[in-house]
Model the fold of this input.
Amino acid sequence: MRALLLPLLLLAAAPALADDDDAALLLADQTKATAEQGGDWQVYTEAAVSEWRPQGPGLAVHGSRASLDARFDKTFAPGWRAVFADRLDLNRSDGAAGNSDYNTLKEAYLSWQAAPDRIADLGRINARNGVAMGYNPTDYFRAGALRTVVSLDPHSLRENRLGSAMLRGQTLWNGGSLTALYSPRLADQPSSADFNPDFGATNRHDRWQIALSEKVSDTLSPQWLLSGGAGQSPQLGMNLTALPNDSTVAYLEWSGGRAPSLAAQALLRPDDAAFRSQLSTGLTYTTQNNISFTAEYEYNGAGMDEAAWKSLRHGPPAAYGRYRSFVTKLQELPTRDNLFLYAVWKDALVKNLDLTAMVRHDLVDHSRLQWLEARYHWPRVDIALQSQLDTGEPGSTYGAVPQRRLWQALARYYF
Amino acid sequence: MTLKRLITAGILIAASANAAAAPSAQAILAASDAIRNPGKPFALTVVLVEYRNARQVDSNTLTVYSKADANSGQFRSLIRFVAPARDANKLMLKNGNDLWFYDPSSKASIRLSPQQRLLGQAANGDVVTVNLAKDYKAQLAGEESILDGDRQSRRCYKLALAAVSPDVTYHHIEMWIDASNSRPVKARFYTESGQLLKTAYYRRYQPQLGAERPTETVIIDGLDPNWVTVMRYSDYAWREVPEAWLQRDYLPRFKPE
Done:
């Protein structure tokens, strides 16, 4: 009897794994993962079909797009790096007038890291500033950088644009850095030719910029910018982020300096240069179930107030058209006060499904853009469905967009 | 000296010798930290494989450069995503609660809140490259034999760790450390309310950078035990990480060797 009991007692005393733990360790035993090697090239192709309905009466317009996007980044000798990024968009639409092909030479530059803390770059560079999400007043090199718009998602607008030709130097130290760049005038006019590198869009004036970051405390590291160039007064900029609590990031982006209003620039009105500010400030809050909400207030001191906007909208159409086209090219806000809301839900209900919603609300004319995206991804393939709705009075910021309702379905393959 | 005094002195000496022989809970924890984390700046490759209900749903490869802060002792890391293709070359900087994400395509540096980090794969990095002895007060909760991640029975110190500052990811942790060699065997991570967030098994010990270190961590989600993440480490190397690199402005520049 004793001989029988002893093994049982030993068995009871022996350590054991919980069932869940055992199952997890079995999975780990069977895991055959090996580290993948990163390549120098990153390439994807995208196909999209769209349908949009105009504001007011009219037939639906159908379109399609094929895109090829390539990025190359190689360290070819110790301290030397070559970067090249290019995108080709072939757009087809009902009627030949809708056909347009654009090649966007986003970046092509050489980088030399002379020391771990000293770097120089030369070539076409997408030099981007700003901590805000919907409107970046300190992103001085965004003006003229868009050849074509494939999506109104702010991430896409930042990604699919032209860099500017420049020489850039950066020095870094513990907790800070100083960057200076010079971007020369290379051409007089933008080009709409399919494969033109379009330096006329990005390098029409001599420009320069200095950026200084310095850590103030463990959690506060503001960035100061000074930007200027031929035919403009220097503009001062600032970027600041903070963590009010574990779930929230707060940010403030500001730019200010002496400048004429957008109206004076677009409509060749008498110079009304004065000190003007642009500002973008907001919060991103993340819930426990992985939804991030961003609310951002945007102010453009060079944009139109309610009275001026009303007068322009009800004035000569040519002046209105010129103003809108000028402001769009600069990626500026036509009016003074705007609100931007953005929400992303990663792994929404099912793994690998991301839902994104965006609202741009013009606080001056109360027009609104609403944009929704559902995106599902596999290791190499994305599929997405996007919907856009522009509402507002005729001539308002979003009421004047030709498309009232737009649907776009796309598939992307990563090579 | 009376016999009584001699005996008392003898007992005291024996007691103090005993006290010296049994390491303090904090020292046990620090010794186990040193096994997980090399003592000098280093680099490694991490493969994360994620399972839901025993089905693989995700796989990522990351390159990590890490360096301990001379003052706080905590690790600061530069992380580059290698795979999948969608995320290739995206970067992350983790310096305490200062967390930045950088996408080379859009050139956007985005600051993340600890909550966003907690929800992403990066949170699992906390289970690995973190000096627990710096952020937690350890108490010896007992000694027990448990099965380790390789199903071997190990005599372990069981430590109860309590956060010393509120800004750490986990409020308290239970940790089992091999009594014979200070290797971390298993840990359970909890919220303030006592909710189990995750269980980690440290396993597949191999000689790496001068010590036997775990080359795999198996993480089981506390709420959903069918959510399992396997983290496998390879390509260990000593890599100097200049202080100037551990900031947002260096992210666009970071390219691992």
About this structure: The helical segments of chain B are 3-21, 25-36, 114-119, 125-128, 132-135. The domain at 24-253 of chain B is CATH 2.50.20.10 (outer membrane lipoprotein receptor (LolB), chain A). Chain B touches chain A through 68 residues (CB under 8 Å). Chain B is about 20% helix and 50% strand.
